[in-house]
Every structure is written in C-alpha cells, then in structure tokens.
Design goal:
Length: 277
C-alpha cells in the first residue's frame, strides 16, 4: 500500500521498531563484544562466550528462557564496568560495527514513516548505552531501552533498573501513547521475536519482520503481514550523511528529533518507489 502523509488534525501516530534482527542484522549488545574485550572490559573467555551467544542468536533467535539466561549473564558481566568508558567504546566503534548491518529495508521504512509524519521509536531489550547512539544513527525520535543501575562510583552494579522486554515493551508504548498523544490504532510496530507479541498487539498495524518460527505461526494465524529483510547496507551508501542535533529525552533515553532528519530525507524518499507492504 502507499504511505499516506498524516492528517495533523488527527491524533499523532508512531512506528515502533524492535532493534535486533529487525532493524539491524545482529544483536546490538553482543556485536560490541570484541570492542569491550579490546577496551579491557571483558577477558578472552567472556569474549568467546559472547561471540558464541551471537552465533546462537543469529541461527535460532532467542525464546523467553534464552533471553532470561542472556539477561542474567550480561548483568553479571557488566558489573563494575565504568559507564563513561562503555559510552566511549560504543561511540568510537559505532559506525564500524553497526552501520554495515542496518537493513536497507528497515532504513527505508524509517524514512517513509518520517515522511508520512509519524514518529519513529526504537524499543529494544538491549542496554540504553548501546541503543541510544544507534537510535541517533538511525534518526529515531525516541528510544526505549533497558537501563542498568549505576553506582556512586559511576560503574554498573549488575542490577537492572528497567527491563525493556515482553509485556514491559507494550507498557512503555502505552505510556508513550498517553504522554505524546499517539493513536495506537493507527500506529505501526515491527519485530522479529515471539517475545514481542504484546508489543505487536498494542498497535493497529503490526508487522512480523524476519520472524522466528513461533512468531511466524502467530502472524499467520492472526493475519499479520510478514516482511523479510535481508539487505544490510551502510547508511552513507544510501543517502548523504545527515547532521541532526540531539534533543532531550521524552521517555527512557535521549535520541534525535525527526523534524531535522525528515527535512533532509523528503527529497530522497520522494524519488524512491513507494513501498508496498
């Protein structure tokens, strides 16, 4: 179908995107494993275990039990990490690690939703220190992400302050809808995982992207459209680099304003063939 520019006299709308294997081709957190090793945050054994976890995630996805094991492992792993050092490592390696694994199809959807007047929100189980800069890279308006407790010494304690997972994602979307005036019946959501069914159920236009087997069955049973993304591409190969100033966070983490990004994308988006989904 053709994307229609929003009627601004109606309630606002948004498109909510899961991150890992929906917008990018890998796990955002595990992708930085080698960089954390080189930065001295983890030892060789932990780096190898992180690489293996990435392999398992890519080949089979992660169900609820696997996600819980991963949460406990990563929470324990990051205990004692200096938060500022983590942010610096992510900033230094973001473009090299994340830019090449962004799905071209997802980047196009983000552009088209912005052009249609919708906000774009990244909703990810990964930590805010990783998701925030990725959201900025993508031109997202807002980010919802897991937050770890930070001690007085500026280091992670290993405890989770907010876990953006499963039903919690749906709760965050409903809270955003209330605070930002989104009409959820007219909003969109995209995810690859059955653990995000509550998130997909919360909007009027849910899409299963590269779905795991459980979500594929669920999508077929409910008549949800299924999208296959398989073309990772560097953003700079798609359009000129954009310079978008950051703005204050409106929910869980700071991201970038869509207004400036949209201005730079309208010309490009209008030249692309409208996407039918």
């Amino acid at each position: 179908m053709l994307w229609v520019v929003e009627n601004h006299s109606l309630p606002r709308t948004a498109a909510f995107f899961d991150l890992d294997k929906t917008v990018i081709a890998k796990s955002s957190t595990l992708t930085f494993g080698k960089s954390f090793y080189q930065g001295g945050l983890i030892n060789r054994r932990a780096a190898l275990r992180t690489a293996y976890a990435q392999f398992v995630f890519l080949t089979g996805g992660a169900d609820h039990d696997q996600m819980e094991r991963m949460r406990k492992y990563l929470s324990a792993l990051c205990r004692g990490w200096n938060v500022q050092q983590v942010k610096e490592i992510v900033a230094e390696t973001l473009h090299d690690l994340i830019d090449p694994i962004i799905y071209d199809e997802a980047a196009s959807l983000i552009e088209e939703h912005h052009t249609a007047g919708r906000d774009v929100v990244i909703v990810s189980t990964s930590g805010a220190e990783v998701v925030e800069p990725i959201g900025e890279l993508l031109g997202a308006d807002r980010v919802v992400a897991t937050r770890m407790v930070v001690g007085d010494d500026g280091c992670f304690t290993g405890e989770v302050e907010y876990y953006a997972y499963g039903p919690t994602k749906a709760e965050a979307i409903r809270e955003l809808a209330q605070s930002e005036g989104y009409d959820l019946d007219r909003c969109y959501a995209y995810s690859d995982s059955a653990t995000d069914v509550p998130m997909l159920e919360s909007v009027g236009h849910p899409y299963a992207v590269n779905p795991d087997r459980t979500l594929r069955r669920e999508a077929l049973a409910r008549g949800w459209p299924i999208l296959d993304f398989n073309r990772p591409v560097r953003l700079k190969q798609r359009l000129p680099a954009l310079s978008v100033p950051p703005r204050p966070a409106l929910v869980v983490a700071a991201a970038v304003g869509a207004a400036a990004a949209t201005a730079g994308l309208v010309w490009y988006a209008n030249r692309r063939k409208a996407v039918t989904v």
